[in-house]
Amino acid sequence: CRAAIPINSDWLKPNCCRAAIPINSDTKARRTMRTLLSLVLGMGLCEAALCKEHSCAAGTKQIAGQEDTDQGNDAAATCCEAMTCSEHTCADGTKMKTGVESTAQTADAAGVCCEDKICKDYTCPAGYTGPMTAKENDAQTIDPTAACCTVDATKCASHSCAAGTKAKANSAGTDKGATDAEAATNCCEVDATKCASHSCAAGTKAKDNSAGTDKGATDAEAATNCCDALTCAEYEDCKVTEKTIDDGSTAQGSTPATTCCQVDSTVTAVAVEGTAIFVADATMEQARTAVHMMLAELLSVKTVDITVTVNSAAKTTRARRLDVFTHTATFAVHFADFTKATAGHTALTDLTKDAAETSLKTQLVAAGGKDSEDPTWTLTLQAVVDPDSCAAFNCAAGYTMKDGEGATKPATAEACCVVDDTKCLSHNCAVGTKAKAEAAGTDKGATDAEAATNCCEAAKCSEHTCAAGTKAITSKAGEDQTADPAANCCEALKCVDYMCAVGSKAKTSEADKELDSNPAALCCEDDPAVTPVPVTGAATFVAHATTEQAQSAVHEMLAALLSVNTVDVTVTVASEEKMAAAARRLNGHGGVFTHTATFSVHFADKAKASAGHQALTDLTKTDAEAALDTQLKAAGGHLDETDGAWSLTMEALVDENSCEVFQCPLGQKMKNGVGATAPSTVAACCENDPAVTPVAVEGTASFVAMATTAQAQTAVAAMLAELLTAKAVDVTVTVASEAKAATPAAGTRRLADEVFTHNATFAVHFADFTKATAGHKTLTDLVKADAETSLKKHLLAAGGKDSEDPMWAVTLMAVVDPASCAAFTCPVGQKVKDAEAATAQGSTPATTCCEADTTATVVEVKGTMTFTATGTEANVQTAVQSMLSTSLGVPAHDITVTVTAADVPAARRLAEQQFSVEYTVKYATSEAATAGHKTLTDLTPEAAAPVLKTALEEAGVTVPEEFTVVKEEQEPVETSSTTAGATVSGSCETGVAAAAVVALLALHL
Length: 1005
Fold this sequence. Notes:
By secondary structure, the chain is of the alpha+beta class. The chain has 27 helices and 44 strands. Strands 13, 14, 15, 16 and 17 form a 5-stranded antiparallel sheet that branches. Helix 20 (709-724) crosses helix 22 and helix 24 (873-888) packs across helix 26 (941-954). It starts with 11 loop residues before the first helix and ends with a helix.
């Protein structure tokens, strides 16, 4: 029955054992039990448990040698003994208490045996000083160096190695040196696992900030992790006649000279050519390399701009060695222009034999050769030809060089060349044919027939310019012109080809009619959707031109400068002959006139008109005269050579920043008389429009994009304005952004910290409930794919980038009809009736929509005002209520005002009176009441007087010039909604009703 003896029979326990009888008592039961147990043990059903089968408790251990001893009644006492502190290992940062080695551990061994190590017992490692005196008795903690020691600023322990390097082994106590460079040398070494230890291959460079990047296990991984391809923008070895492709994206590759260089048509290289002879102990290749490098160094040019060829012959006469050769080097050094070439030619001409041989010896040794005692250097240079002279000029095909013009400068085709009468260039092809491509330099032959065959071929209709009033027949573009190209290739213009002026549009029914003398009337009709905005002005100039030529020139000039159609430009010109010297008129163009052109250019809207106005305002005299002269020459005249005398006067255009072009938001309208006010703002330009109550569609949207908060805000606003056809001013958006911290998967193309989750809260205002409901439905029906397509477009326009999956999600609030009870704000202490949310407010919304809110808290702020004025109590009540509502931002229905006027004789009722005002302002929370109370107390009597005076005068109350106010406020008092403004009705006597109210108040207060 004892716990130490397992009983393996479900029959023995209930039949042999009774807990109420102690087994060790000197009773019959004890003897009986002993007998039974002996019987049981004898039967083999039970056996004694041994100590080795017992688990000793924490702080105790198995008694040595007791493993096979019976556990007995008390296994812990029989088998276990207490462990002493000497057998306990204290944790880091702690040590064995003094004198507790023989103390029993108990279950809390750490508390019984151990105590914190303190800093004065700690020896700071190399590179640190301490322990600090102030911390001698502080606990060491698990990081005793940090807790107890101070880093030595002169040792390597205080130095942080740069990216790609690591601290040298056992360097913490090493002096780091006086400079960062010395510290890097003394304390750090290259980390063989980082990119700093990797040398990038040819055509590549180390990635920016990659020194500390893991380079990987293989050279291939290191090349990927550590290196970027060099781009052509970084290549500097193009020839002088070439320019570098510097787009920053083309990789140099294995042949950068081919990949990165292209011919520079603006540069004509000028060569300095010559021959040098010298004797040296060097191979032909060593000699070529030495001359090549010598010239590059002496003339400060790139090696790619030098060509050298060498012929070598063994020197046998009196030669000391059989490996000595006489080398003859022919070279050419290319320069960017004649001036630089001349300077290079002079440098070589002035080069002394000694200086040349010294330089050559250095380069020969560098190339692997040896100098001889006397290289016997000799140099012969060719003359440098000026590329700007006719001697260097190449006449075009069909031309030949004029005799005796070799030194003429500047070299031009007109100065140097003349048509070659034997070439096709001198032949005029017949109508309907054209000169063969690249046949200008072909021999034309002895007869006209041969010339027609050798020099000409049939011309196509696509190459014919149709006359005014006609256009090319598209279907005949590939046909031959024949002898009458106008008839074969052209047809009359039709209305479909005519460009209507701004403010008009094409008549669809007249599209196929041929143009007549008045195409605008035939082809166009007014466009009510467009109101042309004119830019008008006047220009004066002096020119050799008729009035018609001047008018045509100004007309075409304005159309070209402003990129508008000629039909949208009107010009009238008044011309006055300029009485100048007769000699100025002998120019073949007629007289000289001062022309005054008045013009008007029509644009489709104010923005375009403003841009056009600015373009003309910014037009300089020089640019204007150049453009005008081009058009005058096309019209048959030209500006006066002495002074075109251009001057321009522009009429003012409406300021785009003024209220005249400003759009007020819904619920507001343009103030009268503010059209010219600038800058335009809602406050400056707009006032409330009582006829419109905007209805908002509100919601939140979340998405993921590579965009800043500002870019995300701009994109969502533009997207909503476009989808809902709303004005930008009627869309408000706020965005909160959070960096998307998830690590991107391998191979993704952007870093996680560039991607943000944007949460946008928006409101779009509509003119009425019906339009708002339609807008709400548009957003509700908007599928994710369409939303993301629109969002991506606007994100890109705002300067951001989309992500692969923007994860667009939108949540919309219900649209509330502003005329319903759901949109009405009930007085404090009341709430909208549950069943009345959709009911129209009517003329008495508080009565229709509201009921007492038994759960609401009402906090009242009371106060008084006293002042002198002339008016009725009702008007004073209205004024005070209005002033308090405006000052506190509280609805008028939450303000109660009682006015008492001082008694005066009846005959003086309209005279000045002293008004005593008591008011109560109700708030829903203590915080709001406290804020309101502070506003009132901060409003001093001096500050309150002008505010109240304005309100009184607006209500029809007359106030004296010296107007003062005496005011006082009470602390906020909290009441319940049932007691605030409670009313009692019924058939009770007045006294009974009063008693009931008193009882009610006593109950609640």
